[in-house]
Amino acid sequence: MNLVAIEDAADDRSVTSQTIRNYIRRGQLTAYRPGHRRDHLVDLDEVRKVVTRSRYGTFGPRARIVPIASNLDLRAGDPA
Protein backbone atom coordinates (compact mmCIF):
# COMPACT_ATOMS: atom_id res chain seq x y z
CA MET A 1 0.00 0.00 0.00
CA ASN A 2 1.34 3.40 -1.03
CA LEU A 3 -0.57 5.97 1.05
CA VAL A 4 -0.35 9.60 -0.05
CA ALA A 5 -2.28 12.81 0.62
CA ILE A 6 -5.32 13.48 -1.55
CA GLU A 7 -3.59 16.49 -3.11
CA ASP A 8 -0.57 14.39 -4.09
CA ALA A 9 -2.79 11.73 -5.67
CA ALA A 10 -4.65 14.45 -7.58
CA ASP A 11 -1.37 15.88 -8.88
CA ASP A 12 -0.25 12.41 -9.97
CA ARG A 13 -3.41 11.89 -12.04
CA SER A 14 -3.65 15.50 -13.30
CA VAL A 15 -7.04 16.07 -11.68
CA THR A 16 -8.23 18.28 -8.83
CA SER A 17 -8.33 17.16 -5.23
CA GLN A 18 -12.13 17.59 -5.41
CA THR A 19 -12.22 14.92 -8.11
CA ILE A 20 -10.45 12.50 -5.77
CA ARG A 21 -12.89 13.42 -2.99
CA ASN A 22 -15.80 12.77 -5.35
CA TYR A 23 -14.48 9.26 -6.04
CA ILE A 24 -14.23 8.70 -2.27
CA ARG A 25 -17.75 10.02 -1.68
CA ARG A 26 -19.15 7.70 -4.38
CA GLY A 27 -17.38 4.73 -2.80
CA GLN A 28 -15.02 4.20 -5.73
CA LEU A 29 -11.90 4.95 -3.66
CA THR A 30 -11.04 4.12 -0.06
CA ALA A 31 -9.80 6.93 2.18
CA TYR A 32 -7.67 6.33 5.26
CA ARG A 33 -7.46 8.63 8.28
CA PRO A 34 -4.41 7.99 10.44
CA GLY A 35 -5.16 8.55 14.12
CA HIS A 36 -7.17 11.65 14.91
CA ARG A 37 -5.83 13.70 12.02
CA ARG A 38 -8.32 15.57 9.88
CA ASP A 39 -6.60 14.94 6.57
CA HIS A 40 -7.17 11.74 4.68
CA LEU A 41 -4.81 9.54 2.73
CA VAL A 42 -5.47 7.38 -0.31
CA ASP A 43 -3.64 4.43 -1.79
CA LEU A 44 -1.89 5.78 -4.88
CA ASP A 45 -1.97 2.35 -6.55
CA GLU A 46 -5.77 2.23 -6.12
CA VAL A 47 -6.09 5.80 -7.39
CA ARG A 48 -4.07 4.92 -10.49
CA LYS A 49 -6.43 2.02 -11.22
CA VAL A 50 -9.63 4.01 -10.72
CA VAL A 51 -8.80 7.50 -11.91
CA THR A 52 -7.62 7.36 -15.48
CA ARG A 53 -6.06 10.36 -17.10
CA SER A 54 -8.32 11.69 -19.78
CA ARG A 55 -6.74 12.25 -23.14
CA TYR A 56 -9.91 14.13 -24.08
CA GLY A 57 -9.54 16.92 -21.55
CA THR A 58 -12.59 18.08 -19.65
CA PHE A 59 -15.07 17.51 -22.47
CA GLY A 60 -15.01 13.69 -22.57
CA PRO A 61 -14.56 11.14 -25.34
CA ARG A 62 -17.83 11.92 -27.16
CA ALA A 63 -17.26 15.64 -27.50
CA ARG A 64 -17.11 16.91 -31.04
CA ILE A 65 -14.40 19.53 -31.31
CA VAL A 66 -14.00 21.14 -34.71
CA PRO A 67 -10.87 23.12 -35.50
CA ILE A 68 -11.39 26.56 -37.02
CA ALA A 69 -9.08 29.11 -38.55
CA SER A 70 -6.96 30.78 -35.91
CA ASN A 71 -7.17 34.18 -37.61
CA LEU A 72 -10.91 34.67 -36.98
CA ASP A 73 -11.87 37.75 -35.01
CA LEU A 74 -14.39 36.30 -32.55
CA ARG A 75 -15.08 39.73 -31.02
CA ALA A 76 -16.57 41.10 -34.23
CA GLY A 77 -19.79 39.09 -33.98
CA ASP A 78 -20.22 38.27 -37.68
CA PRO A 79 -17.57 36.44 -39.69
CA ALA A 80 -16.13 38.52 -42.48
Give a count of the beta strands, DSSP E runs of length 2 or more: 3
Low-confidence stretches: none
Shape designation: elongated
Rg (CA only): 19 Å
For the biggest sheet, the summary is: 3 strands, antiparallel
H-E string: EHHEEH
| Overall pLDDT confidence | 81
If strands are numbered along the chain, what order do they take across the biggest sheet? 1-3-2
Helix content: 25-40%
Supply the number of helical segments. 3
Strand content: 5-15%
Q: Structural class of the helix and strand makeup?
A: alpha+beta
CA distance, first residue to last residue: 60 Å
* Assembly level: single chain
Would you mind describing this structure in some detail?
This protein is of the alpha+beta class. The protein has a domain of 48 residues. The protein is built from 3 helices and 3 strands.
Structural features:
80 residues; 3 helices; single chain; 3-stranded antiparallel β-sheet; alpha+beta; 3 strands
SSE arrangement:
Layout (H helix, E strand, L loop, with lengths): L2 E3 H8 L3 H9 L5 E2 L8 E3 H7 L30
Antiparallel strand pairs: 1-3, 2-3
Helix pairs in contact: 1-2
Summarize this structure briefly.
With 80 residues, the chain is α+β, with helices and mostly antiparallel strands. The chain has helices spanning 6-13, 17-25, 44-50, and strands at 3-5, 31-32, 41-43.
